[in-house]
Amino acid sequence: MTKTEPETTLDTRFSEDIAQATPWAHTRRRLQDAELFWISTVRPDGRPHVTPLLAVWADETLYFCTGPEERKALNLAHNPHVAFTTGTNTQDGEPDVVLEGTAVRVTDDGTLRRLADAWVAKYGEGWRFDVHDGGFHHSSGAGHAWVFGIRANAAFAFAKSPYGQTRYRF
């Protein structure tokens, strides 16, 4: 997926007077470095589903994996729109980030191998995957997973001290 610089704006309605827009480079770094994310999907009956998971940032895309029988995958088959959040449960510190977009399944073995390497680099050997049949397979035999990339259409950074809300449009 190609590198894109989004349109960046500070929403002054939800920001202190001294706040400035958070640069996309800073928010991108938060997405790269975050260990844990929360994904929000929608069940076929319209109810929300939210769960924590691991993800890697590569090629200006956030990638995650899930078993084809898991609720996330079942929801995505019905509605591919998702929201990812990451941050801290504190009033001070780094900005919290929300990424909204469409989940697209990745099946290309070359891309999957590169992403499997990224999982190991970020999370360690316990997250080593073999790649075949269009997905990840855990070397322990614990099962297989589909990989999805999020094509962002919007993202938000919620700065703390001073409070500021930055919107990114792609």
TrEMBL record:
Coiled coil ranges: none
InterPro entries linked: F420H2_bilvrd_red/Heme_oxyg (IPR052019), Pyridox_Oxase_N (IPR011576), Split_barrel_FMN-bd (IPR012349)
Assigned keywords, A-Z: Oxidoreductase
Annotated Gene3D superfamilies: Electron Transport, Fmn-binding Protein, Chain A (2.30.110.10)
UniProt keyword Disulfide bond, yes or no: no
UniProt GO MF annotations: coenzyme F420 binding; oxidoreductase activity, acting on the CH-CH group of donors
Residues in Pyridoxamine 5'-phosphate oxidase N-terminal domain copies: 27-125
GO CC field: cytosol
Organism domain of life: Bacteria
Record protein name field: Pyridoxamine 5'-phosphate oxidase family protein
Organism of provenance: Phytoactinopolyspora halotolerans
